[in-house]
Amino acid sequence: MEREDSSSSSLPDSETSALSRDRSASVSSTSSVGHTALRQRVAQLLACVEGIGSDEETQEEMARVLDKAFLLWGKRLKNKYLHFRLHVMTWNVACASPPANVTDLLLLDNQLLNTDMYVIGLQEVKSGIISYLSELAFEDPWSKLFMDVLSPLGYIKVTSIRMQGLLLLVIVKHLHVPFISGIYTNYTRTGLGGYWGNKGGVTVCFRIYGYAICFLNCHLPPHMSNVDQRLSDFDRILEMQNFEKEDIPNILDHDLLLWFGDLNFRIEDYGLCFVRESIDNQEYSILWNKDQLNMIKKTDSLLQQFQEGPLLFQPTYKFDVNSENYDSSEKRRKPAWTDRILWRLKRELVNNPVDSGECEHFFSLTLKNYEGHMKYKISDHKPVTATFELELKALLLNPPITLIPEGQWITPYDLVVSYSQSPEFISSPWDWIGLHKVYINASGFPEEGGEFRLSYYSNHLQAIVGLSEPFQISRNSMTPEDWREKKGDPLMY
Description:
Largest sheet: 6 strands, mixed
Distance between the termini: 62 Å
Strand order of the largest sheet: 3-4-2-1-11-10
Structural class: alpha+beta
Radius of gyration: 27 Å
Mean pLDDT: 82
Order of helices and strands: HHHEEHHEEEEEHEHHHEHEEEEEEEEEH
Shape: globular
Helix content: 25-40%
Number of helices: 11
């Protein structure tokens, strides 16, 4: 991938002018087509208001009519756009075992927040041969920790990918699962010239409500002097991240790309004492200008396309393990914001007109919170989280499949399922319907009934496209032989 430099962070003048013209034309076209009649009525209404005079009864009647109109319009806007809360976490865990409590990291201590999706990227997860062999048979301890916490709250793991120490998990509220399709994972090794996976990037991409989203978890080379190698590795990851989709051949073709991880960019020029004094005084803005990533973004045309929230938290590297003190070893490494979360919206979405009521596509992203979590001490890095509010006009309004369990379900026989499908859905003989316990604790799958869900898996879309509401299954006291005798069926061996 070719990397271009520019003298400023803005687009070239010619391109900026073209974009401005396109944006103005879009606004004008949208307004003239859909809103002319409405604007005429508003003008008439304003004239009526001016002519009312002091007639209080008429004023009150008009106020009631307007209140109803605004209430109706508010409901229509609410139904038209979907609000979606996305929480992203990155953490270099330095081969440590998971902590006992991740409540703060997952925002579970704030009952007012309702997170729709968690995206968790870890680096330096313990990946020795014994750990690898164990995880072939059992889930890795980090994935198990997060799912043990989130599963009882109605979350489902969409997918995950692991490349040695890099782990990426995507966990979503169950109600969104049928609207996710085209799930792909990929990885790129950059360690030892591309032969070793201790460094590199792992990705998960899919469509949700019709929009293409990609998550990229990276671990780039360390040390102050390796900034060019970091950029080279990032370019290689982007070049190698191709997908089996005609409309989205490369990682940069997604509507939203979230890039995060241990990016290892450091703070240049300033000495250790000055950096620590600035941190102690919470004068972080002084250090921003010498942060390598911020410096490069001023001239790098590719990185200019990525946005990041303000670094209002102290640098997250390097700490003494089990403490909140920066490195006290002989190396006395300088603190740095190595752990970052950035995002890139597709240009077509960025340039949507402000008045988007008539637009076919509408997708916006707002950063609500960006912070480091100093209380977690198991690693020499502190975890970083970012919370986003997505507002989008859903391109997929109804799930492709609706599943309904018929009658009262009593195990182990005569369980009937009915389902309906949308006209656009294409079924396959290789589709299947699954039955899942809503939550299984460490003791395993219980023999006595419980709460379950039905799912419909589409082979064509490589995704679950239907998910039933939870329902109860009762355990029948008859043995299989008693049941067959009652039904008149021959005993099968």
